[in-house]
Amino acid sequence: MQYICPICRTSLSLNAKSWQCENRHQFDCAKEGYVNLLPVQKKNSKDPGDNKTMMFARREFLNKGYYQKLSDRVNELAIQFSYSETETTQQKILDIGCGEGYYSHRLFKAIKDNIAAKADVSVSTSSEELSEQATGCHLQGLDISKSAIKYASKRYSDLDFCVASAYEMPFADSLFDLAMRIYAPSKLEELQRVIKKDGILITVSPGPMHHFAMKKIIYSEPKPHDEPKAELEGFTCLHQERLQYPLELSDPIDIEHFLNMTPYAWKLTQEQKAQIADQGLSCELDFSIEIHQRN
Question: What is the sign, positive or negative, of the torsion defined by CA atoms of 176, 178, 182, 188?
Answer without folding.
Answer: positive
